[in-house]
């Protein structure tokens, strides 16, 4: 494995030349036994009006549990803290991730916390890429990353996908023909590939292990870093009719980050989030990867927002300590089962009301909370941004126009619909309103709806 200085060359110019945050680099020294710290301008905890935090929560088996945070733990959470996160929570997550992904704790990786996983992803983009650098991205791709890449002046090269995820043969073709293909011949070689492999947003599909193996082989061969954004990892739906197993033992997808330990050891940064599992407003996510990359991310944080919220961290840490690993798995499996039930019911309505009359089609989601609908619109109306504003909104229904998920700007017939917060009694009415909006497009052009495959 290359040494740290050799690997730091892969960082962006800004990351390599960013001055250290002088005070924060010394924060860990305050933990040295016997140290008298005259270092930081931390406020005295006695000035804080909060004496204790009591939270009514759900226990590992769904029972009511009351948690209390007070004393030194609360004082630490309310004050300036370490940039990578509260030490106890970081250690808990490292031990959990080592078991969950079969990757022993060692010098080849570390973990840090951020203000949600998107905070860490955007800072990783900035740490890895300069203006004009290239990133590969699955197509369609999570819409939240595209504005950041554009504002950083990065070039995005799309990689086609299907129900199994990234099409490896297409990725190989792009890389093997880089210097001759019109789209890439004037571009530098890619530094990263961004993907959301489980219950992809917006597609709802999950990459197979064979796909991940193929993509990782290309990353090693062509020396780019896979940015594995996996907020729906624990929301993969349990298989109906599968043999009963404990929450801990239930098979889960093998991650790129797990494979990287065996194959590449340094070609993957993995991002996870508590937003879909515990509370989106808490704004806490975490990343695992090579220390030289996460050090650069922490340096960015130390010079901007300083740290993730200490109060949010201590709430999550208290909950995880109460649950333990088994309790966490039980909770996420209950959550995944809830979303599966909603997905099954919403899909039934969508297939009956939209697909059967030939108004839409989609792939059955395997995780998460979305359907990626291809609407059967007239070619003159094949712009779902206009469709949403001119037809769907007047019909009383909202969805996300598909163009925001496309790495390259273009018209599209796709929309993303979310069923996560939709009340069961509204499933049918939501589909009926979409149906009326699509039919209105065909009435406007004076044609009947042509038949399409479901």
Automatic annotation (TrEMBL):
GO function terms (MF aspect): pyridoxal phosphate binding; transaminase activity
Pfam family, one: Aminotran_1_2
UniProt cofactor(s): pyridoxal 5'-phosphate
Keyword Phosphoprotein: no
Aminotransferase class I/classII large domain segment(s): 77-434
Keyword field contains Mitochondrion: no
Keywords in alphabetical order: Aminotransferase, Pyridoxal phosphate, Transferase
GO terms of biological process kind: alpha-amino acid metabolic process
The family this protein is said to belong to: Belongs to the class-I pyridoxal-phosphate-dependent aminotransferase family.
Protein name (database record): PLP-dependent transferase
Lineage, opening ranks: Eukaryota, Fungi, Dikarya, Basidiomycota, Ustilaginomycotina
């Amino acid at each position: 494995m290359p040494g740290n200085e050799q690997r730091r060359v892969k960082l962006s110019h800004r990351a390599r030349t960013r001055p250290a945050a002088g005070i924060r680099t010394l924060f860990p020294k305050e933990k040295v036994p016997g140290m008298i710290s005259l270092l930081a301008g931390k406020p005295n905890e006695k000035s804080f009006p909060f004496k204790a935090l009591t939270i009514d929560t759900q226990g590992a088996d769904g029972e009511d549990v009351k948690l209390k945070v007070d004393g030194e733990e609360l004082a630490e959470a309310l004050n300036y803290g370490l940039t990578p996160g509260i030490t106890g929570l970081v250690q808990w997550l490292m031990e959990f991730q080592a078991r969950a992904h079969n990757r022993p704790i060692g010098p080849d990786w570390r973990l840090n916390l951020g203000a949600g996983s998107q905070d860490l992803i955007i800072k990783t983009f900035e740490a890895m890429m300069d203006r004009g650098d290239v990133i590969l991205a699955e197509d369609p791709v999570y819409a939240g990353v595209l504005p950041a890449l554009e504002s950083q002046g990065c070039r995005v090269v799309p990689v086609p996908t299907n129900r199994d995820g990234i099409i490896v043969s297409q990725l190989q073709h792009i890389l093997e023909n880089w210097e001759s293909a019109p789209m890439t011949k004037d571009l530098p070689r890619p530094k990263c590939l961004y993907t959301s492999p489980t219950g992809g947003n917006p597609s709802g599909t999950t990459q197979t292990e064979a796909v991940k193996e193929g993509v990782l082989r290309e990353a090693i061969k062509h020396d780019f870093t896979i940015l594995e954004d996996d907020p729906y990892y624990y929301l993969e739906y349990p298989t109906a009719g599968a043999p009963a197993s404990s929450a801990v033992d239930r098979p889960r997808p093998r991650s790129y980050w797990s494979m990287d330990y065996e194959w590449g050891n340094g070609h993957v940064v993995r991002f996870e989030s508590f937003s879909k599992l515990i509370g989106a407003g808490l704004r806490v996510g975490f990343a695992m990867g090579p220390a030289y990359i996460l050090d650069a991310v922490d340096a960015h944080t130390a010079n901007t927002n300083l740290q993730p919220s200490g109060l949010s961290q201590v709430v999550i840490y208290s909950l995880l300590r109460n649950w333990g690993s088994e309790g966490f798995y039980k909770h996420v499996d209950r959550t995944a089962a809830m979303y599966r039930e909603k997905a099954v019911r919403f899909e039934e309505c969508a297939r009956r009301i939209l697909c059967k009359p030939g108004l839409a089609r989609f792939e059955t989601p395997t995780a998460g909370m979305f359907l990626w609908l291809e609407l059967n619109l007239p070619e003159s109306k094949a712009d779902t941004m206009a469709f949403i504003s001119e037809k769907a909104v007047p019909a009383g229904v909202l969805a996300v126009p598909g163009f925001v998920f496309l790495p390259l700007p273009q018209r599209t017939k796709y929309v993303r619909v979310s069923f996560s917060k939709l009340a069961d009694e509204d499933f049918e009415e939501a589909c009926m309103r979409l149906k009326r909006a699509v039919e209105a497009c065909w009435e406007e052009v004076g044609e009947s709806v042509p038949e399409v495959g479901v």
